[in-house]
Amino acid sequence: MDITILYDNTSLRDDLISDWGFACLVESERFAPILFDTGADGRILLINMERLGVEVGRIGSVFISHNHFDHTGGLGAFLQVNPAISVFAPYPCDTIDGAEQVTLVRESFEIGPGILSTGVLNSRSFSRRSRDWSSS
Predict the structure, then answer these.
(1) Does domain 2-134 have CATH number 3.30.830.10?
(2) Mean pLDDT of the residues in the chain
(3) Taking the domains of the chain in order of start, what are their residue ranges?
C-alpha cells in the first residue's frame, strides 16, 4: 500500500502548494486508488495532484473523514473534473454535490477489499472512554 500526501499545511517540495487542510491518495493492488479527504481549496488540490503526476481520472473513489472545510473544501473542484465517482462520507455530510454515487457512512463499513471505515465516531464515545481510563 502506498500513501501520497497531496495537500497539507507543510511540504518538503518547493513545487507543491502548502495550505491548511489535508488530502492523500491511498493506492494498492487490491483496489482502485482512493482520494482520502480533499483539502480546503480545490484549485490547490488539483495543482498538487498534477505536479505529483496523479491522474484525476484513475481515482476510483473519494473518502471524506469528517465534515470540516479543511477536509472537504476541494471536493467540488475535484468532482467537476471527475464526477463519475463514488464518494463515501460520514453521516450527516451535506457538502456533496455532483458525485455519481454518494454513500453516507454511519457504522463500520467495508469500502473495498481490506479498506474499512469505523463509521461515525462522536465525542461522547471518547469522553466515556476517557472516564473509564482515568478510573483504572
Answers:
(1) no
(2) 83
(3) 2-134
